[in-house]
């Protein structure tokens, strides 16, 4: 991209003045890919790229456009010696260049993390100012590149109109029932339930953007992103559940409004957008999640368990390490019910799923950390965690190819990358979920293994869930260094006809998948 712009700037350029003039033309041409509409969701899906990749491309094209504008504006240095710059002929293009330059500092990463909506509003305001001033400048100069600028504006309007019309057509607000969102505030998170039609296809890892103009005046100009955590199909509608961490702006206002009383209001849903990650070829899958990051991986876990039950994937070990900010009673009841339902569904299949949930201690206790086992594959750890050792232990006990997926704070994410990347290859792959959905910690916060008090935590293990088998009602407590927590490498999987070691995992799973797809044959013998 940068090389193409340099080539266009230098090709058949015979003087520095000619290069300065051509820089202005390239600045207008680079505005065309910047006009991607009100949302990156639809263009990213059409181009089959990730939203973060498209955002990265958008930022760098914008920076190149600013560099061309600065180079073109350097022509004013020689003009200022003989002509005053106070006339509209020169003041308007100077205003356009200044507006383009100011877009970079107001949309930098530090501002976007803390004041996302403020950065976006300033971005649109400055972009509109620069395009308007630039159009005046091109018309006044009678430049043919004004048609490029008109084409860029028409492209933005076309993509934006397409996104809105698709959302309206899918939801059909003129027909009952209308899409509604129900908001609740639990354990310092904003929980949203949205009802959408059954014909809206949803895949794991996708996200939606919500337009809620009735919330406030500012919400009329915002399209916040919410990743889908889980969905349930009803008789006529589908309920989609999402979780968000309240930050400055609309989500915090919704959180405080829901604290007073759960609210329900109509909503326009844009999406879902995004392409799911593929875990089908991996034998061992490890999810390292923290707080709200668990709900980013929730839909993947559900689909992998269902695909394993139908003998459609290679996975034989699916382990989840979840570092919670709050204790077991800090989340809505459906979270624990969902985990138990998954374990019950996996009970008669391969038993691939295991949860290791880490909660901070809040009371003085024994020197050793407390471990509570609720059932066979659900562990609660109350105390500290060394994430590097846990990840290394799971990698060493792998079955087949391994995928390590991370959605956590930067501290945990870097610790996992430090452990996995030296050994990454064809049979070991690291996947990092969208960083914008991960909890951001401040510098004053300690590492994930800190023992800071947190509201809602308890030293007592969670109560049993009704409907569990007898084995899941047995509650056992161990110190964290107990040998019972170690996974034996010599464990065998018993089938109806044979016992196969886990080291021969890939061939065994491929054989089982082939047997499941093979139709039974019946031979009739005449007597």
UniProtKB/TrEMBL annotation:
Residues 439-505 are annotated as: Disordered. Residues 496-505 have a biased composition (Polar residues). One of its GO terms (cellular component) is plasma membrane. Signal peptide: none annotated. InterPro entries: Ferric/Cupric_Reductase (IPR051410), FNR_nucleotide-bd (IPR039261). GO terms for molecular function: ferric-chelate reductase activity. The keyword Transmembrane helix applies. It comes from the Eukaryota. One of its GO terms (biological process) is iron ion transport. This is FAD-binding FR-type domain-containing protein. It comes from Penicillium nalgiovense. The lineage of its organism: Eukaryota, Fungi, Dikarya, Ascomycota, Pezizomycotina.
């Amino acid at each position: 991209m940068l090389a193409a712009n340099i080539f266009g700037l230098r090709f058949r350029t015979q003087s520095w003045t000619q290069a300065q003039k051509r820089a202005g033309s390239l600045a207008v041409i680079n505005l065309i890919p910047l006009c991607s509409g009100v949302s990156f969701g639809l263009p990213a899906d059409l181009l089959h790229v990730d939203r973060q990749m498209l955002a990265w491309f958008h930022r760098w094209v914008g920076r190149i456009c600013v560099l061309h504008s600065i180079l073109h504006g350097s022509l004013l240095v020689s003009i200022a010696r003989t002509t005053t710059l106070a006339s509209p002929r020169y003041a308007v293009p100077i205003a356009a260049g200044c507006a383009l330059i100011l877009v970079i500092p107001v949309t930098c990463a530090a501002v976007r993390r803390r004041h996302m909506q403020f950065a976006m509003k300033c971005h649109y305001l400055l972009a509109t100012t620069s395009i308007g001033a630039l159009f005046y400048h091109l018309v006044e100069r009678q430049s043919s590149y004004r048609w490029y600028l008109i084409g860029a504006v028409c492209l933005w309007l076309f993509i934006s109109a397409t996104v809105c019309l698709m959302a309206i057509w899918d939801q059909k607000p003129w027909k009952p029932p209308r899409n509604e969102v129900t908001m609740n505030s639990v354990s310092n998170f904003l929980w949203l339930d949205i009802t959408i039609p059954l014909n809206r296809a949803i895949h794991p890892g996708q996200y939606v953007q919500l337009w809620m103009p009735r919330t406030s005046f500012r919400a009329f100009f915002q399209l916040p992103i919410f990743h889908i955590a889980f969905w349930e199909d009803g008789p006529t509608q589908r309920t989609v559940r999402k979780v968000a961490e309240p930050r400055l702006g609309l989500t915090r206002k919704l959180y405080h409004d829901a604290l007073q009383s759960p609210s329900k209001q109509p909503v326009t849903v844009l999406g879902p957008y995004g392409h799911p990650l593929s875990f089908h070829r991996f034998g061992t899958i490890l999810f390292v999640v923290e707080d709200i990051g668990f709900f980013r991986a929730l839909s993947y876990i559900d689909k992998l368990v269902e695909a394993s039950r139908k003998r459609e994937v290679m996975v034989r070990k699916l382990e989840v390490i979840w570092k919670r900010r709050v204790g077991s009673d800090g989340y809505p009841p459906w979270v624990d019910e969902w985990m138990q339902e998954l374990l019950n569904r996996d009970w008669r299949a391969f038993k691939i799923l295991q949860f290791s949930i880490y909660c901070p201690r809040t009371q003085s206790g024994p020197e050793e950390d407390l471990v509570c086992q609720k059932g066979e594959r659900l562990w609660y750890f109350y105390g500290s965690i060394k994430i590097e050792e846990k990840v290394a232990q799971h990698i060493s006990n792998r079955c087949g190819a391994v995928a390590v997926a991370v959605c956590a704070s930067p501290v945990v994410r870097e610790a996992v990358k430090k452990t996995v990347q030296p050994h990454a290859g064809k049979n070991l792959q690291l996947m990092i979920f969208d960083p914008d959905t991960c909890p951001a910690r401040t510098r004053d916060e300690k590492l994930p293994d800190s023992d800071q008090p947190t509201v809602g935590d308890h030293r007592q293990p969670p109560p049993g869930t009704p409907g569990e088998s007898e084995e899941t009602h047995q509650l056992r407590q161990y110190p964290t260094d107990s040998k019972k927590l170690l996974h034996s490498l010599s464990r065998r999987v018993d089938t109806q006809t044979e016992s196969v070691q886990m080291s021969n995992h890939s061939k065994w799973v491929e054989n089982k998948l082939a047997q499941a797809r093979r139709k039974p044959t019946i031979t009739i013998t005449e007597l």
